[in-house]
């Protein structure tokens, strides 16, 4: 493995940056292409301090053909993890064409380059959002997909692009990873979830309340069919999630396979807040507001396929997710 390099598109994002750390001793070079649309250079310097000289950054959009060509010419790329894309669900509803272009069309261009360069080991970063409103729980990989917003549709479109391509079907090992709700941070506190602008997901919002940048957390709905009325999700520690990527990379069987990456356990918004408060001794004021449109009562994974096929199990606790997330913000 040590003579080979890996390309992480969108590698400065939350999941990509943690993966880069996890892959440190697996590849000669870890090459990132990232346009910094949802990241800042400081994240790169912090990541570099963890990964070292094998980390190489190209500051560009994946649609920049000349940069992508240069990467494949300059490095012995043997595997690709494709994270790059826009991910704000609300924004995708307002600007669906932009989302289609940046997510689906740009991926199509990238895939042409992968084929030209005979890349046979690919991981695509998908999302549990493709399942839409659950028809049953726990959600396994055979659950039907149905988008409830343009962002989810983009993920489905890309998955379909992979499934329908004879090159991927016959010559590659493609792993489609459907993430549940990754939170937490690297235990060093040097990297974490650091989105630009106003955050959409719950943990970055809790962190803003904890630092008093936001006055309170608005909990979307307290009348769901759950033990305390608030929505239930399958939160997975980012360090577990990236271990799942490492196992998926090592699984090099030909064909296209989908894996859920989740814990199989669900926690409510109030469970999450209470745990965060207990573990970190920080108060998170909150109030209840209307349900957020498109939200569902409960989502959690059936993680069995990843366990039996990859030997991967997410074992870190909700306590550790809350501790590491706050540790990152305290050290910022
Ligand atoms: N949530 C909330 N307030 C917020 C953001 C999220 O109550 O400001 C809730 C949301 O309704 C859901 C859970 O937190 O039950 C996780 O939301 P997130 O957007 O992080 O993930 P997703 O809904 O996409 O799974």
The CATH class of the largest domain is Alpha Beta
The CATH topology of the largest domain corresponds to Rossmann fold
Radius of gyration: 19 Å
Number of domains: 2
Bound molecules: uridine-5'-diphosphate
Number of strands: 13
Strand order of the largest sheet: 3-2-1-4-5-6-11
The amount of beta strand, in percent, is 15-25%
Overall SS class = alpha/beta
Low-confidence stretches: none
The overall pLDDT average reads: 96
The description of the largest β-sheet is: 7 strands, parallel
Could you name the key traits of this structure?
single chain; alpha/beta; Rossmann fold; UDP-galactose 4-epimerase, domain 1; 7-stranded parallel sheet; two-stranded parallel sheet; 12 helices; 13 strands; 40% helix; binds uridine-5'-diphosphate
Write a brief caption for the model.
The chain is an alpha/beta fold and 332 residues long.
């Amino acid at each position: 493995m040590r003579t080979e390099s890996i390309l992480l598109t969108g590698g400065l994002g939350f999941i990509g940056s943690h993966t880069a750390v996890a892959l440190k001793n697996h590849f000669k070079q870890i090459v990132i292409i990232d346009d910094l649309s949802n990241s800042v250079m400081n994240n790169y310097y912090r990541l570099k301090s963890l990964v070292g000289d094998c980390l190489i950054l190209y500051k560009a959009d994946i649609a920049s053909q000349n940069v992508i060509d240069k990467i494949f010419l300059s490095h012995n790329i043997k595997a690709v993890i494709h994270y790059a894309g826009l991910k704000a669900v609300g924004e995708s509803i307002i600007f669906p064409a932009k989302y289609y272009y940046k997510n689906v069309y740009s991926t199509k261009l990238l895939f042409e380059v992968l084929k030209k360069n005979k890349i046979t080991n690919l991981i695509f970063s998908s999302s549990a959002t493709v399942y839409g409103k659950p028809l049953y729980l726990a959600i396994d990989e055979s659950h039907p997909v149905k988008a409830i917003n343009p962002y989810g549709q983009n993920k489905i479109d890309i998955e379909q692009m992979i499934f329908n391509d004879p090159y991927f079907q016959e010559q590659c090992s493609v792993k489609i990873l459907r993430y549940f709700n990754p939170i937490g941070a690297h235990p060093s506190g040097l990297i974490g979830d650091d989105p630009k602008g106003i955050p959409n997901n719950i943990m970055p919002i809790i962190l803003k309340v904890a630092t008093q940048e936001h006055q309170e957390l608005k909990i979307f709905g307290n009348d769901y069919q759950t033990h305390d009325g608030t929505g239930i999700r399958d939160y997975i520690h980012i360090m577990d999630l990236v271990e799942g990527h490492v196992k998926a990379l090592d699984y090099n069987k030909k064909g296209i396979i989908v894996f859920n990456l989740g814990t199989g356990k669900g926690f409510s918004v109030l469970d999450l807040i209470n745990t965060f408060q207990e573990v970190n001794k920080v108060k998170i004021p909150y109030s209840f507001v209307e349900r957020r449109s498109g939200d569902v009562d409960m989502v959690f994974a059936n993680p069995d396929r990843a366990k039996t096929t990859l030997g991967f199990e997410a074992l870190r606790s909700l306590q550790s997710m809350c501790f590491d997330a706050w540790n990152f913000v305290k050290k910022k």
